[in-house]
Amino acid sequence: MPSSLPPGIAPDLASLIRLQHGARGFSFQPGQPVRSLLAGRRASRIRGRGLSFEEIRAYRPGDDVRMMDWRATARTGRAQTRVFTEERDRPVLLVVELTPAMFFGTVRAVKSVVAAEAAALAAWRCLAGGDRIGAVLFGDDGVETLRPTRSRVAVMRLLSSMVRRATRLARTPPSPASSTPLNAALAQAEALAPHGTLVVVVFDLLSADAGTAAAARRIARHNDIVAIPISDPLERRLPDAPWRGIATDGGGFSVLDPAASGLGPAIASGFAQRLARLNTAGQRSEIPVLPLGTEADTAEQLRRQLGRQARRRR
């Protein structure tokens, strides 16, 4: 599904397919401490695959006594033990925001392109690890769910859906970021994810609120969750004065004059506070927070945060 739009404006299916070769140097496997860009001493860890109950059978010499099923033993009068097997794969659920607010960017790409790239990299990396890939894609036009499946076909279906949705944003009127679609998608993910799922949430940093943190805490009780907020340099810090500009949120226009209004410091301070709240909420629930920007290569940003810095700090 080639796009007639420039690559920084809308993702192209071929480019997302090529990212499978760049999905290296980082991992969502257990034992990967995510420390970068998280304040404080506690390191979040991704638990990874667990154990799946298989059967109850008669105790055999050499069985782990900690696996004894005392109720079954009392009921049958013979020693019984529980047998578990290691899960061979793990369901992965990618929750990806593709709202009109994500169609914004001032450097390399708009935020919706970075979101699609991050989700594609996660999908290829997890598929290579033998995991099942599913998704919850959402925008102002609703939610699309793809149940976790371990196949290249499932990843291709995900990529095609993201390209279609992201391309539509170029023809959609702009609107401000809102937490409502994000929190509704997280509720959908909570209902869809079985215990032990890896939930990777790729979203506009400006969309998150207290309800987002509460939904993430609920998901994290029985699953692993990774938060990937996306932002643009202009949202973090305005250029130094003097300059003037016009801004719109889709509903009205305003004049930007950081020299006269003190808007520049307010933007930088507001962004720093928002990111700090997100990091604090992530720490409390042991959720890694991996901010991505629109100005740099997405694969390199993930490698730096999930790979190189983790190895350096071991």
TrEMBL record:
Protein name (record): DUF58 domain-containing protein
PANTHER family xref list: BLL2464 PROTEIN (PTHR33608), DUF58 DOMAIN-CONTAINING PROTEIN (PTHR33608:SF12)
Pfam family of the protein (one): DUF58
InterPro entries named among the record's database cross-references: DUF58 (IPR002881), vWFA_dom_sf (IPR036465)
Extent of Basic residues compositional bias: 305-314
Origin species: Teichococcus aerophilus
Domain DUF58: 55-241
Sequence segments annotated as region (Disordered): 291-314
